[in-house]
Structure formats: C-alpha cells, structure tokens
Amino acid sequence: MNIQPGLDNPQNKSKHSLLKRMGKYALWLSLVASLSLLLGLFLILPGDLPKAERIANIQLQTPLRILSEDGKLIAEYGEKRRIPVLFEDVPDAQVQAFLAAEDSRFYNHPGVDFKGLARGVVQLLTTGRIRSGGSTITMQVAKNYFLSPERTIKRKLTEIFLAIQIEQELTKSEILELYFNKIYLGHRAYGIAAAAQVYYGKSISELTLAEQAMLAGLPKAPSKYNPLSDPERALIRRNWILDRMALLGYISAEEISLAKEQPITARYYGQRSELNAPYVADMAREEMLARYGEGTYTDGYEITVTVNSELQRAATSALRNGLEAYDKRHGFSGAESKTDPDKAVPEVQGALVSLDVHSGAIRALQGGYDFHHSKFNRATKARRQPGSTFKPFIYLAGLEKGLTAASRMNDAPVVFDNGTGGWRPQNSGGRYKGAIPLRQALYESRNMVSIRLLDHIGLSYAEEFLGRFGFDVSAQDRNLALALGSAALTPLQVVKGYGMLANGGYDLEPYLIEQVKQNGRLIYQRADTPRSEPVVDPRSVFILQSMLKDVIQKGTGRRARVLGRQDLAGKTGTTNDQHDAWFSGFNGNLATSVWVGFDEPKTLGKYEFGGRAALPVWIDYMGRALQNETEFDMPMPEGVVTSRISLETGLPTLDPSNSYFEFFRAEHAPRLDQLVNSKRVNDLEEMMLF
Fold first, then answer.
1. 274 annotated active-site
2. Crossing angle of helices 391-400/538-554, nearest 10°?
3. Fewer CB within 10 Å: C terminus or N terminus of the chain?
4. What percent of the chain has pLDDT over 90?
C-alpha cells in the first residue's frame, strides 16, 4: 500500500495545514504588494504612456495586393504577409481556440489578469526576473502595437497600464480584432488570415477545428510549436488546446475526439496567386511606387487592374505556344535543354498587348516568354521597328490628304539619292505590279507604293499626322524609310495606334490601374473621360478599316480567316532580314499587337515573316478572347459613299465584271464626267442609281 509518509500523524497534519494557510497569506500579501506597487507607479509613468486612442488608427504593415478586374489575386508585395479581417468574420471556434490557449478569462478581466500578475510579482521578488507575467490578450495587443519586445520592469509596467487604458476605450471585440490582425504566427504570416493561407492554403472560414487549434498554438512560440519545423511539439500543443477548449465548455467530447484523430495537414503555401500575370503585376507595382513611394509595400494598398483573368490566361498561353512553335521549327530548345535545363526556355522572345479600344484599358499583357527567366517587359520597354505594321498610318495620312483607296500608284523600283550612293528599296520577294490602287498595295504590303505615298504627302505633314496617334518620330532619321516602319516603337505604343484606328480615330490613353483601396477604403477610381473630337476624319478611318479587313480576307494576314469572323482587320509587319515579326489588328472592341524577335536583334530565319511568326499568336489569342463576342464593326459614318470602280483603270464603271465597289468620302467620290470620258453617255442614267 502506497501511503505518503507522515500524513497520518496529527502533528504533521497540523503543520501541513499551517503551511497551506501561510502560502495563501503570502499570495494575498504579494497581490496587495503588487497592487500597491502598480498604484504607486501609475502616478509616475502615465506621462510616458502612448495614447490608447491611437490604436484604432495605427497602420498595420499590410502588403500591396494586386487583383484582376474580375477579382483574381495576381500578386502581393511586402515583407509581411497579412490579410486584415473583421472580428465578425472570424469563426467562433477560432476565437475560442485562442482564448483557451492565451487568455481564458479575457471576457472577465479589465485588461490585466491579477492572479497571473501576482505570480509574476512573486517570480520577480524571488528570482529578480519575470518568467511568466500572465500576459492577457489585451496586454499582448499593447505590446505588439506600441511597445518594444525588451523584457524590462518598466516595459512590463507600461504594458499593464496601457492594457487597462485600451480596455476602457475599446470593446472586447475591437481588441480581439486588433489581436487577430497583428499577431505573428511564423513564416512571415502576420494575423490569422495570413497564417491560414501560409499553413493550409485556405481562408479562415474553411479551417477545421484541428487546424484552428493548431493556429492558436503558435503565438506562444511561433518556431517552437510550428507544424512545419517541429510537427511533434505542434501536435502536443494542438491537443492540449483542444483539451482546454473541452474543459472550458467550448467543444463536446465527440468534437475533441474527432479533432485529435486528425493528422497534421499543414504545409508551406507560397504566395496564393490566382492569376499568373507577373509582367502586369510588376507594371502595377512600379506605378504604385511612383504614386505612393515606399509606403506602397506596407500601407495596406489593394489595387484592381484592368486585366481580365480569362484574357490574360489566353494571352500567356498564346504567346508561349507561338514562341515554342517557332523554337521547334528551328530546333533550338531541344539541343540547349540537354546541356542546360535552364535554357529549356526558348531563346526567341515576344510580347502581346490587348486594349479595350473605347477606354484604353489594358485587358491582357504578356511581356515575354517567362518573367522568372527575364523580367524585362518587352510590351512596354522594347523599342523595335514595327515594319509594315506602321504602313496603315501612312495610308491614313494619304486618305486625309485627299487620296482615296482607289487612287493608283506605281509599284515599281525606285532609287533615291541619299548622298551615299543611292537608296534602292525593294518589295519583299523582288516582284512588282506597276500601277495599282492603294487598297491593293496595302493588303499586299507593297513597299514601293508606301514609299511613293509618303513622298507624295511629304515628310513634314506625315510627322505632324503621326503625332496625333502618339508616335514621336523626331528621333529617327528623317527620310522615306519611315514608310516602311523604321521608327522604333514599343508594342504598347503600336497597339495604342491600332486602338485609335479601331474606335474611329478618337484619342486613346492605355492604362492599367482601375482603382486603389487603402485598408478597404476607396482612395482612387479612374474616371471615365469624355470623348474629345477625333484626331482624324472618322470617314477616313472607316475606309482604312475596310482596307485592313482585306489584309485578312485576301492579303498577308489571310491565315486569320480561320476565325470565321468578318469584323477583323489588321496588318502584318516584318523588318529587314526578318529581325522583327509583327501582327497588329482589331475588331470594334479589342485591339491586339504581337511582336516576336530576339532581345539582341538577329534574323528570325528564312520565311519567318509577320504572317508566320506573329500572326498565329494573334489568332490564338483573339480566337479565345472573342469566342463569346458577337461581331462588331465601326458604323459607317455619314458622308461615306460607294461607287463601282474598274480594276483596270481605277475609274467608275457600270460593268460588273472586273470591277468592285469602293468607299469614298463624298467630296472625293468619282465625278460623273470621269464616267462620261470612259463609258457611254446613256450609262449616266443608270449611274445615278449608285
């Protein structure tokens, strides 16, 4: 029989009883002493205390969050991972788990648990140090928001007094909300919402009871009881908290049993990105940094960008598919990847930008094959010659100058004296067709006609006209090579111009940031800007659109006919020696430009023209972007007329064979006397029907 020695002796019992009473007296004396000490120090320290009312306005270090226009998280920037939550959004069981672990008397004390405080005073008096000061949740809030982590008597006393002030000015729910948002829970996670994402990849509303208890075990020692670094200790801590929850009446025996059976499911979840758009995120980050400075990363900004998640996914996929297809045609990546796995990214690069032609909102942007291998954003920073993609703007200048789509120019070799022996431009393939209408010259991309057209309207007029579309060509050599796209432009600049061609000639300013919130409060919303006057006659734009539709229906962009749409217009572009391949095009709502080339300019190879290297990317993207969109064209403006034109002469005719209907601005339509000179007088009456 195991009996404790001496306890059955009446004398020993009396001594034991005396010791218990003395212990109680000592506890009460220490409590009175601690309260007296607190009261005395309270009269000394208040001048050093932070004002408790500041706590409601303290700015948490919350990272910059970037969302797509349809609410998908693209990226977070900032050292601390934090997702602020409201108290009412925290599940009851999660609250109870933290109370069980950290402060079960939270709702009963005034900010300080005096029993725990007395134990701390005894430790201080007997050891000279405070090992467990009975910190309440309110005291932790005071420490985390206002005080340093140093372990000194003054800091501890200040923490106590400040906790009492906080309790007087804030509700229990407000204190818990501050606690849940500020507390550090390991692995850069600040606050319970961030921790739920870091350890479980979930929102706090999705956590199981076992997972909630696991999070509640972290504040005491985020490293020691961490399920990633020490799962055995974390499990013991979790189960102890579950037992405490049961003891306090928060959960039933059945719930605790089921929760304890759950294995540790925590693992590290990196940044929870719902949309892979790193070039977009980096652009938004740079713009925010320019607006708000270094506070961008800490001051709780959440921005919504104009990018649509579905369009962005289509853009990323289309560009990668196109670059990989080019790569396979030339056998590059296979050989490189065998010796260097890091080079299984194609060497060839590209960019895609897509705009809403009415607002200028960037709907999709991909600045290269892979941001992690190259952060250089070619969509906004790569200045390359656009080649023949630039020709439509020269043709539009010609239409504004009085020419028509039926005007004929000579497609024949020409030599220009440039002071160094003469400039001898050529058509691609070296073939020439003589006098042809501008419409045909554009959809067949005839270089000689483009050069003669620019020579006809004059460089000075062309430069002024191009400036209306945002093209500053003043830095380029001032010569007729401008007609072939010699000016260096970024894909974003090119797509802006094409957006203006698509919207009828109205100015367009591409933009990315739609709105900015700070800690949930809207501080910026992009306003709709009223349309100003068009920078060019909409009638000329309408006629040019019809010419660019022919590029797709029967010209260098005819591969795009696979999309089966009649509202598409665009232009291929290829520079000398196939250094750059382009396709830019639009329908009535969306304009998209694609560039393909090498970062260090060199030939893409034989036959790698815009129609082969860039157009398939455009088709892939636009096919998905417009798959649920009805066809939409620019309405024909007033003052546009049609007339039947002879393919042979370019003059009006009534002969349906070898002729076509052409659009004209009313004042430039063929005159009746031209018909008289070319056809019978009795055709005049029939001509009036057109």
1. no
2. 140
3. N
4. 69
